[in-house]
């Protein structure tokens, strides 16, 4: 339901901005390639849980999907993971060209901050700034970008232990998922204690999500993944299953989902119920 | 004077953030490679001209230099302009590697928004948001990133006229220079009429700056440029001298500097005097 609204917003949010046509096509090619819209839905839901009309924060929530999309485009580049396929279609630089893919990513990242700063709906500017800072910090060089740098560094090495893997994933994928949750609460002006609980939820489902992703890369099918099975192992990536095996990885994902549910114990209502169910849903994909 | 303070701030602004060491080295390699720090100085000066203590907006002003630096790193990439040299040293991807250069750029761009959002000094959050939005809009897909996309598209073509060249440069280099001026005025809470005058100044010196840059690419020396003379022509770039010749290009730059000075006619004091002198200084580099 909320994912469909996000989809509708994403379909039009780049229109009428005066973007050169080919660049806009490249940005929309990846932005509108489907996906679960997990991060915006998290942001909308925590905003709702802390008292806002979720729809009032749509530009902000959608902006996080722009950031997620840019990261996929740049991660797929020849100099990075060199992936030809993304969600069953040619990756951005294969569909367009490398320069256009770099610029499409740069454009999505920058425009995301424009969307965030433009959120209206009577939300105090101080709340918007606090939420924006949470996102910039999670997406930047000590968050997602730093995690990707570590991922490149770790690929092909055999001395990476579970602690290093966890830190890398907490930066590379966890930080953006966590901040999606925190941003909604900050936009809603939630008190510090509530923000902390929401942050705990976000960190736990972020961890669960990554473990599940690693498991699916070994056990999923190509249609489900949109890319060849086992591509992590082929690229020499360290994964949870490669360190722990499938069964212990599954148990670890379930443990994280349980932690997530516990973090939201103080919250009631439809959005809180949805977020609790979501935590289990993430793990059920591999159970 | 202000440039030295910017330099000092830039030297420490990435420290202690938990950035993976190699990534931080790559970011600082390009960020601390010298340069005139034109954009931060413009932001500090217009903030001062509209009543703020310039030093109170330093994180914001410095952030614009991070954005400028990221754009240079990505523009130099093999898939883009494929430049081996920048300011007389190996370009980022030559000094490190291509993946690191892409991530260093991504990190600088994202961290810039973190710096902008962190500006304190009692500046109202609404002013910060307005200024941040000006920067995101100028740097994004309908500004700097879009201009670079057009530049790639125009390279090697012989059907680009002066109007197209002007639009491309207004996006690629003009927008960030203009927004550096506007952001300072918005942070200072200047009235709309003053913001408009400052915007006019910024647009005019942005245009002058680009024309001068094109002229220097033909008439400068390698030591001054930090790269081979004539590289624009060699790459098949359309430039002001290639369309108008050197003399008419010089006259056009002077015309823009004069417009810039006129835009500031209503402003008095040290910062306004500095900005007027700066407009002429830009043109004097090629006179």
Report the radius of gyration of chain A as a whole number of Å: 18 Å
Strands ordered across the widest β-sheet of chain A: 1-2
> Do you know the CATH architecture of chain A?
Orthogonal Bundle
| Low-confidence sequence ranges of chain A | none
Q: What is the 3D form of chain A? A: globular
Strand content of chain A: under 5%
Mean pLDDT of chain A: 94
Largest interface chains and counts: A-B, 51 and 51 residues
Instruction: Output the CATH class name of chain A.
Output: Mainly Alpha
Name the CATH superfamily assignment of chain A. Answer: Farnesyl Diphosphate Synthase
| Tally of discrete structural domains of chain A | 1
Oligomeric state of the chains in view:
homodimer
The DSSP helix count of chain A reads: 14
Cofactor (chains A, B): Mg(2+)
InterPro entries (chains A, B): Isoprenoid_synthase_dom_sf, Polyprenyl_synt, Polyprenyl_synt_CS, Prenyl_diphosphate_synthase
Family (chains A, B): Belongs to the FPP/GGPP synthase family.
Keywords (chains A, B): Isoprene biosynthesis, Magnesium, Metal-binding, Transferase
What does this structure look like?
The structure is a homodimer of 287-residue chains. With 287 residues, chain A is mostly helical. Chain A has one domain: Orthogonal Bundle (Farnesyl Diphosphate Synthase). Chain A is 71% helix and 1% strand. The first copy, chain A, has 14 helices and 2 strands; from the N terminus they run H-H-H-H-E-E-H-H-H-H-H-H-H-H-H-H. Chain A has helices at residues 2-12, 21-31, 38-49, 58-76, 92-95, 98-117, 125-139, 144-154, 162-187, 192-219, 222-225, 231-234, 240-263, 270-284, and strands at residues 85-86, 89-90. In chain A, strand 1 (85-86) and strand 2 form a beta hairpin. In chain A, helix 2 (21-31) packs across helix 6 and helix 10 runs antiparallel to helix 13 (240-263). The two termini of chain A are 25 Å apart. The mean pLDDT of chain A is 94.
């Amino acid at each position: 339901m909320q994912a469909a609204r996000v989809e509708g917003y994403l379909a039009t949010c780049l229109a009428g901005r005066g973007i050169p046509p080919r660049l806009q096509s490249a940005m929309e090619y990846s932005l509108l390639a489907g996906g679960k819209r997990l991060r915006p839905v998290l942001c909308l839901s925590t905003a709702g849980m802390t008292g806002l009309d979720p729809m009032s924060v749509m530009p902000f929530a959608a902006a996080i999907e722009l950031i997620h999309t840019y990261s996929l485009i740049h991660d797929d580049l020849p100099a990075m993971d060199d992936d030809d396929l993304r969600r069953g279609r040619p990756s951005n630089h294969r569909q367009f060209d490398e320069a256009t893919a770099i610029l499409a990513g740069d454009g999505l990242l920058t425009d995301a901050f424009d969307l965030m700063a433009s959120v209206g709906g009577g939300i105090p500017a101080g709340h918007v700034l606090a939420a924006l800072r949470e996102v910039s910090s999670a997406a930047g060089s000590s968050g997602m970008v730093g995690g990707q740098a570590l991922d490149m560094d770790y690929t092909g090495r055999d001395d990476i232990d579970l602690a290093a893997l966890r830190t890398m994933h907490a930066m590379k994928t966890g930080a953006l998922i966590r901040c999606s949750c925190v941003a909604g609460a900050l936009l809603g002006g939630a008190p510090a204690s509530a923000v902390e609980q929401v942050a705990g939820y976000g960190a736990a489902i972020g961890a669960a999500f990554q473990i599940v992703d690693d498991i699916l890369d070994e056990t999923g099918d190509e249609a489900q993944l949109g890319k060849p099975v086992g591509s992590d192992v082929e690229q020499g990536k360290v994964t949870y299953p490669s360190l722990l095996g499938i069964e212990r990885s599954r148990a670890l994902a379930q443990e994280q989902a349980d932690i997530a549910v516990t973090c939201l114990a103080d919250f009631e209502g439809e959005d809180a119920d949805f977020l609790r169910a979501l935590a289990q849903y993430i793990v059920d994909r591999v159970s």
